[in-house]
Amino acid sequence: MTDLASTGGGPPSFDLTSQPWIPVLYRDGRQDELSLCEVVAQASDLARIVGDVPTQEFALLRLMLAVAHDALDGPRDADQWADWWEDEDCFASVPSYLDAHRERFDLLHPVAPFFQVAGLRTSRDEVFSLNRIVADVPNGEPFFTARMPSVERLGFAEAARWVVHAHAYDTSGIKTGVVGDSRAKNGKVYPLGVGWAGNLGGVFAEGDTLRETLLLNMVAHHTNRHRSDPDDRPAWRREPCGPGAAPGRRPTGVRDLYTWQGRRLRLHFDSDGVYGVVLSYGDPLPLHNLHEREPMTVWRRSVTQEKKLGEPQVYMPKGHNPERVVWRGLSSLLAERATASQTTEAAPELGAGVLEWIAQLATAEGYLPRGTRFRARIVGAVYGTQQSVIDEIVDDRLSMAVILLNRQDRRYAQQAVSAVADADEAVAALGDLAVDLARASGAATEGPRSRAREQGHDALDAPYRSWLQNLGGAADPEEHRTRWRTETHRIIRRIGEQLIAGAGDAAWQGRTITTGKGDLWLNSAYAERSFRYRLARVLGDPEGLKADTAAPESPGDGPADLGPETPAAEAERVTA
């Protein structure tokens, strides 16, 4: 095997600083596996880290960020960051740093194996399946994978990636206790939650190269909204973990958080690779009020937790909704963190610290021109069955200009968020049309509504992404939004026409519907007029569509607002 670990008669070794193990994508489309030193040396030629699954990419990126933060001991402030941004060789000192800590990056080290506990064992010396750490084959519920139904063996390179991933995203549930862990009762440790990153709705900024990506996410030690302690350091500069938890320890900053030892783990291997694992809980980490430490997630205020914990303000990480694409949650990504001098009322949400940092670089410091583009990337795990399995993995990205983060000119951000509202309202009108057509034919309404809304959002996905990408270059953001409203009207109107054409004879003939105004004869013709009115009401009237519609006399009271009362519709009414 190419990754056979040996040291010429000495103890087995797999040195992550020199052995290839991190999957990467080059800018020209080539893929390869590189060592830590090679990734740093070639960062300007690489598009990104790939990973076996998106959450693994997020975990590996955070590992690389911890290396970069610690090796460069910064950035102290925006000025130092700007010097690095202009210097193509800003990571030149990282290889020597890795060489100095080489021993702690040995996956198979007999005393301090990388991200593991030497000698970790259960009371029965059990060795468990690698399914426990490989996320694309969860226990009992394998995803689409060629490794079904179990993972018998891993090469050292892939095993190293899953070790990093386990600390970040391991599931909860009852785990086998290990010798020396006081939390074990009758050989078991009861659920203590998922790995730290598994709680996050992961957010980071992607540049055109891995070098740019690393720098864009390297937040200064101290900003108005983020801080790290002077003694902040990663796991490899701390004493090796024992089998039990470190009592009462809190994270000191990003270097600590990005390498948080949330699990106790030991690989079992032979000369051909890894064949088993021992896995248990590690250092616990409370979820609340780490918003000044953890910059790679949006935070939401929790009144429930405030009451439970007796604290005036409690913020919890906000996870991702797997049914909602990234642009539909744009308001959360662009949320501004108000300082105490700005308001006395706690904000319902706090934006991700990495995007706040980019906003500072673009606005207050002026180091990033307003037209600079980056991709806001979201990654997260969705757990099921009491967090004991990973049900889904969320992965999406959105290209935008830094002007959207500008705190002194909010016009662009406001138009971007308002355009999302335009889309949501137009899709809601499409859903109402589907309900009206179903009611006209006597069919159930919820299925048609949800299918129509899904179809509408899918149809607007690519157009919105393209529109947003060009928003930063628009001289007038309001005029740019007008073009979006016109395009949205065209797309949703076309889908509505397709729904009407496919509604069938029963909807065309219609039937009597009881409303608060009396009984109404509802058919596809009336449903179409109502839809056209609603669409013009929420998006404007780009094609003079209000000429044949009038405002409704009063809102309807059925499952769908039946919309305007036109003269033709009034003629069809059958009064009670």
TrEMBL record:
<protein>
    <submittedName>
        <fullName>Type I-E CRISPR-associated protein Cse1/CasA</fullName>
    </submittedName>
</protein>
<feature type="compositionally biased region" description="Basic and acidic residues">
    <location>
        <begin position="226"/>
        <end position="240"/>
    </location>
</feature>
<feature type="compositionally biased region" description="Low complexity">
    <location>
        <begin position="241"/>
        <end position="251"/>
    </location>
</feature>
<feature type="region of interest" description="Disordered">
    <location>
        <begin position="224"/>
        <end position="253"/>
    </location>
</feature>
<dbReference type="Pfam" id="PF09481">
    <property type="entry name" value="CRISPR_Cse1"/>
</dbReference>
<feature type="region of interest" description="Disordered">
    <location>
        <begin position="544"/>
        <end position="576"/>
    </location>
</feature>
<dbReference type="InterPro" id="IPR013381">
    <property type="entry name" value="CRISPR-assoc_prot_Cse1"/>
</dbReference>
